[in-house]
Amino acid sequence: MTHENLIIIGSGPAGLTAALYSARADLGPLVFEGIAAGGQLMITTDVENYPGFPDGVLGPELMDKFRKQAERFGARMRQVDVTAVDLSKRPFRVSVGADEYTTDALIIATGAEAKWLGVPGEQILTGKGVSACATCDGFFFRDQELVVVGGGDTAMEEALFLTKFASKVTIVHRRDEFRASKIMAARALEHEKIEVIWNTIVTEIHGKDTVTGVTLQDTATGESRQFATDGVFVAIGHKPTTDLFVGQLDMTETGYLVAGNDGGTRTSVQGVFAAGDVADHVYRQAVTAAGTGCMAAIDAERWLADQE
User: Fold this and answer.
1) CA separation (Å) from 295 to 31, 54, 190, 256?
2) Please, are residues 137 and 131 in contact by the beta-carbon 8 Å criterion?
3) Where are the alpha helices (H) located in 138-285, listed in sequence order?
4) Is 93 exposed, middle or buried (0-12, 13-18, 19+ CB in 10 A)?
5) CA-CA distances (angstroms) from residue 160 to 94, 124, 192, 202, 212?
């Protein structure tokens, strides 16, 4: 059994910023990065909207810089997955397989994952015309024709945002009406650049080095056809990585951690803090995640000082 002042779970912008700030505060944080270390930016090519990089930066390169900066001040990294957490008493218990750790404070920065279609071509073309974030990647599709898959508010928001750059946006939805709120659906339906293909699913994404088209299938007739497009934005929702904390921390109906009721990052358990996309279903940006990582580290430092 190893005891720590502070454990951080997650290694995206939120987790590594929390590691940087808490390490500089001499808390000696232990960071469980996860096997897939670095978060969603590890599958992002050009990042052009993170401050300080006027020429852009590759996602993996940015996360490597985050990591090295945190390590410089003494943060310790373990590229393993946490398998269990017990928040019922202090010190908290964190399990990594057969290894167990206790900690006085915990920062959760496990992030959220986009829900994907799971169709051929999607994975290999992610970052090459397939995206789940219009705010991140829309700029790269100026004057191009795009497909947005989905029918909820997220899909409407993505489609409307993409009209700033694309020449045409086609929403592909599996039903005959949107699940989105009436006002968001109306905005999309009334936009001159947006068209809708109803009762249709995407069954394959085509392209070699970049997206060239998709296969569409009618959900009523089963008939398939080819549809040319320069990019595909999957907007069928996100799933926060919170399975470890079910029944232990307050969550929203969709599984996001409830934090910040006092304006900070505190969760429903004293000594446990949440940062980044795991508690953010609105913005989901690297820069906002980093900001809340800073907040969580400061909140944890002050909380620990109060305990002493």
Assistant:
1) 17, 25, 40, 18
2) yes
3) 153-162, 182-190
4) middle
5) 43, 26, 10, 20, 22
Cite the active site residues. 133, 136-137
Cα–Cα distance, 90 to 69 (Å, whole number) = 30
- Residue at token pair 């029944």: 247
CA distance 296 to 207: 42
Q: Is the dihedral of CA 245, 151, 122, 133 positive or negative?
A: negative
Residues shown for the chain: 308
Residues whose CB is less than 8 angstroms from the CB of residue 28 and which lie 6 or more positions away in sequence, other chains included:
4, 5, 6, 74, 75, 76
The DSSP secondary structure of 204-234, one letter per residue, reads EEEESSSEEEEEEEETTT--EEEEE-SEEEE
Nearest Cα residue to 136 out of 211, 34, 43, 208: 43
pLDDT in tens, 269-303: 999 999 999 999 888 899 999 999 999 999 999 99
Distances (CA, A) of 255 to 35, 61, 107, 268: 22, 30, 17, 14
Whole-structure pTM value:
0.80
Q: Which two tokens stand for residue 75?
A: 């943060």
Summarised one tens digit per residue, pLDDT across range 156-173 is 999 999 999 999 999 999
Residue appearing with tokens 């996100």:
238
Q: Burial level of 31, CB count in 10 A (0-12/13-18/19+)?
A: buried
